[in-house]
Design brief:
The chain is mainly alpha-helical and 188 residues long. 81% of the residues lie in helices and 0% in strands. The longest helix has 32 residues.
């Protein structure tokens, strides 16, 4: 049944998704797009929607995928999607909640320990690698286009947005709106 498979997938994502939502993206993509529950295009759209809505990207994407996957599997009534959303959201949060509840006491007691410091020093580069993996994962045809002209235009928009955020005091929301307007003008 689709719900048991979603629970298993999101339990793995919740247990091994260190570093936040961006670090989880490659794991989410492998667990959800790999079995064919959603398409690569839907995954890209989910990432975009999760970026625009308040809250962590991992939880937002779990809620959306929990709704969409049962629909793709033939459960067409919206209540099946709502059940999937609730299940995926709770399952992706549960491991982190339990882990933090258990380890916060331990870490507080042993924060000066060489072993605890070593674990955190070892996890930092892994998190950076997972975030870089998410960036590479999102550099696909769905985001940048399939034709050479689309790829060039997409890269120009991305570089212009990055430069604007890095070198001006323009608020990132304004940059997002301007990029959307540029895409509307260019592609419409």
């Amino acid at each position: 049944m689709i719900y048991l498979r979603l629970i298993w997938s999101y339990l793995k994502i919740g247990l091994f998704g260190f570093g936040g939502g961006y670090a989880m993206l490659s794991l989410i993509e492998r667990e959800i797009v790999g079995p064919g529950w959603i398409t690569e295009k839907m995954f890209t759209d989910i990432v975009a929607i999760s970026q625009m809505t308040p809250g962590p990207i991992g939880i937002n994407s779990a809620t959306y995928i929990g709704y969409a996957a049962p629909m793709q599997a033939g459960f067409t009534h919206p209540l099946w999607g709502l059940l999937g959303s609730v299940i995926c959201t709770l399952v992706v949060v549960l491991p982190s909640f339990l882990l933090v509840a258990y380890t916060s006491h331990f870490i507080t007691r042993h924060k000066e320990s060489v072993a605890v410091r070593g674990v955190f020093m070892g996890l930092r580069p892994v998190v950076i690698g997972l975030i870089a993996s998410a960036a590479l994962l999102l550099m696909n045809g769905e985001n940048f286009g399939y034709e050479n002209s689309e790829i060039v235009i997409s890269i120009i928009i991305a570089v212009a947005a990055l430069a604007t955020v890095l070198f001006t005091k323009l608020h990132p929301i304004i940059v997002i709106l301007l990029s959307g307007i540029a895409g509307l003008i260019i592609y419409y």
